[in-house]
């Protein structure tokens, strides 16, 4: 839990610095960008759930046979 709070704190500090320096925000400006990042993470986790992707390929092939 500590790492999540530190991550949030450091992100907040960077956001404040960017705002004070009037720089563009270094993050997706819309919800669609955030959802895209979450999708990338979930896709990565999906591969690890299916034993490095081998089981995932067999599972997908099962849908078409």
UniProtKB/TrEMBL annotation:
The keyword Transmembrane applies. InterPro entries: DUF1427, XapX_domain. Keywords: Membrane, Transmembrane, Transmembrane helix. The chain crosses the membrane at residues 5-25, 31-50. The keyword Lipoprotein does not apply. It holds the Pfam family DUF1427. This is XapX domain-containing protein. It comes from Marininema halotolerans. The lineage of its organism: Bacteria, Bacillati, Bacillota, Bacilli, Bacillales.
């Amino acid at each position: 839990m500590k790492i999540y709070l530190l991550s949030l704190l450091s992100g907040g500090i960077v956001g404040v610095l960017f705002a004070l320096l009037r720089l563009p925000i270094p993050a997706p400006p819309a919800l669609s960008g955030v959802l895209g990042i979450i999708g990338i993470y979930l896709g990565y986790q999906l591969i690890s759930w299916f034993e490095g992707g081998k089981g995932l390929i067999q599972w997908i092939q099962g849908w078409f046979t």
